[in-house]
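Following the same procedure, the fold was encoded as tokens, giving this record:
***
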Amino acid sequence: MSLPELLLLALGLSMDTFAVAICAGLGLAKVNFLNMLIIGGYFGLFQAAMPLVGYLLAARFTVWVNAVDHWIAFALLGFIGVRMIISSQKKEDRCAPCVSCETCRVIPAFSVSLRSMVPLALATSIDAAAVGISFAFLEVDIIPAISYIGIVTLIVAIAGVKVGQAFGVRFRKKAELVGGAILVLLGGRIFLDGVGVL
């Protein structure tokens, strides 16, 4: 997987994080660089760790699935991407993880405590484990890949907090839509490469 492809993948994976970070920006009593760094750090760490988990689990079975690795990568990335696109089209009463929305205008305080951040970081990074499975089948060099994903997610989360502080929830759905489209396109490219079209 080339560096530009890895960048696109990292951006696609980080769109869920971006959406949640926007809500964090809405709910933080005070937005400062330390708070943004803490939020970005949690999201970046988990987003890097989950592909590693998927990679380590899948590496045991790589020998048996080399013939269908492109199908697996296509299915996993396509599933995650389509789910994000569908989610971006749903109308919600609430903006997870807070309850700030255009209807109720309620903005509870957002906390950067361990208890608050770990569930959010875990929830937004679960899908990345499936990407780690794809990495194993495609024989991607895992350490640079997850480092790249973690750093991109850190930057995207910090940007999301600033956007949330400045503009509110209007960009959350667009972020999910763009992220989903990126993952579907990457999955399609990997599949076409695997069957010899590219």
Summary: The longest helix spans residues 33-59. Residues 70 and 191 are 5 Å apart (CA to CA). The chain has seven helices and no strands. The chain has a mean pLDDT of 78.
